[in-house]
Amino acid sequence: SSSFRITSVMVLFFECCDPRFTVYMGKDKFENEKLIANGFPEDLWFHVDDLSSAHVYLRLPLDLWQQLQLKMYPPEGFPTKQNKESGGIKVLTKDDYESVIPQQVFDEMAQLVKGNSIEGCKVQVDVCWTPFANLRKGPDMPTGTIGFHREQQVWHLKHVDRDREALKKLEKTRCERDVDLVKERAQREEEERARIRKHNQELKMREKEERKRAEEAKALKSYAALQTDDSLKQDNKSWGDGYQGTVEECREVEDDFM
Fold first, then answer.
1. Rounded to an integer, what distance in angstroms lies between the CA atom of residue 249 and that of residue 254?
2. Which SS3 state, helix, strand or coil, does residue 254 take?
């Protein structure tokens, strides 16, 4: 069928020092193209600066990503019409990412891209990294090449030397898996929509409960005021039918006691 298209790709996976993170890369520049098109928002992209190398991705666990989302979209933790219009969206910084990712993980990512660069594996290199959302792929760009939306959101691990032991340990964990990238991306997007729906439902419930409490407090206040008024009326009656509680009447009462 002409509508049939292959969406699965052979992806290489590695285990870093922290099992919460997922590390993956494409086998070649053609598979890199498919990874570029189907990454997740919590992914970071690593590459040897100014040299050909593998494209290596680090996927953050969702709890850490949601911590960063709270910084990006306060206070909800995801984009809404209100925080888009108010300009409240924060661009994540290098410090933001470093606050949730251990330094050893960064070091391992640097070793992996350096070790998978024909030229870079022989010399000291700088490694650049950036959020997946900052990757820009134009229609006129050659296969396997990439640009960036914001240059200020491209950061560097400087003067990386080869660490044979660290690279050897990573390469021992290498495994190849057939991944349906389009399906996984669609599932991830649906999970995010479900999270937002749940948040909105919880927000509506909280607002409803707050309104109910406010109405109950108002009713209680009105009832207390009514009781006080009735009590005063009862007190007035005890002083006689014509008693109004004026200053002059109070003085007369005092004079009676004197």
1. 9
2. helix
75 preceded by a cis bond (ω within 30 of 0): yes
Which residues lie below 8 Å from residue 76, measured CB to CB, with a gap of 6+?
A: 83, 199
Nearest-CA neighbor of 97 among 75, 126, 125, 129? 129
Those residues whose C-beta lies under 8 Å from the C-beta of residue 3, and which sit 6 or more positions away, are none
What is the rounded CA–CA span in Å between residue 108 and residue 110? Answer: 5
- Tokens in use for 125? 């290199």
pLDDT in tens, 169-195: 999 999 999 999 999 999 999 998 898
Residue 23 β-bridge partners = 14, 58
Render the burial of 4-22: b for 16+ CB within 10 Å, e for the rest. Answer: eeeeebebbebbbeeeebb
Please state the pTM of the whole predicted model.
Answer: 0.76
Query: In whole angstroms, what separates CA 195 from the centre of its chain?
Result: 11
